[in-house]
Write a structure and sequence with these properties.
With about 190 residues, the chain is an all-alpha fold. It has seven helices and no strands.
Length: about 190
């Protein structure tokens, strides 16, 4: 696997340094609450910095969702790998998790006091709504991109129906739809090239 993307794959002339990767993911980890990190990472890495292109991001997001572990941690490791190899992966992973680890330890010690503050429940509801909004932005971008190809649209609908409507376990849906989607993409790419 290539450590850095070629200039045709990524708009960045040179990948960021390991310290820059660590500091970005440290900031994201420290300033995020209750989810929605995928949308924030997309904004920071693709839109603002141009470190990777949207296709690479969506591939990493899909991979992160099917691998064991938390999606955002998997995505951070993927992005770090694409930018700076194993050192980039370690920097993204440590940056993302070290800040929240310390913050949780500190907050746990004062949780009883914070819970008693007026409007604390309303503040958490607002934070949750913002996180859901960020997730919806990324989901809509992904759906729009996938829907341009019939095989991708079928895989999207089949996955949604299997998990949301028929309550099939996610792993089973991935094992059924994943290979079919990959085959359709493979044969579609071969047909497009021929």
């Amino acid at each position: 696997m290539s450590v850095t993307a070629s200039s045709s794959e990524s708009p960045a002339a040179a990948p960021p340094g390991v310290l820059a990767i660590f500091l970005l993911f440290l900031r994201i980890g420290l300033l995020s609450f209750g989810g929605g990190l995928t949308g924030w990472v997309f904004r920071e890495v693709v839109v603002l910095r141009g470190w990777i292109v949207e296709d690479e991001f969506m591939s990493g997001m899909a991979l992160g969702q099917i691998l064991p572990g938390t999606n955002i941690t998997n995505l951070a490791v993927y992005i770090g790998q694409r930018l700076r190899g194993p050192a980039g992966s370690a920097a993204a992973f440590l940056g993302l998790l070290s800040g929240p680890f310390v913050a949780v330890l500190l907050l746990a010690s004062v949780y009883g006091v914070l819970k008693q503050l007026p409007h604390s429940a309303e503040a958490m509801d607002g934070i949750a709504a913002a996180a859901i909004g960020l997730l919806l932005v990324v989901a809509m971008r992904g759906a729009r991109r996938v829907s341009k190809k019939p095989a991708g649209a079928v895989a999207l609908v089949a996955t949604f129906a299997g998990v949301a409507i028929f309550h099939v376990p996610f792993l089973l849906v991935v094992l059924m739809v994943g290979p079919l989607s990959v085959a359709a993409a493979w044969f579609g790419g071969v047909a497009d090239a021929g």
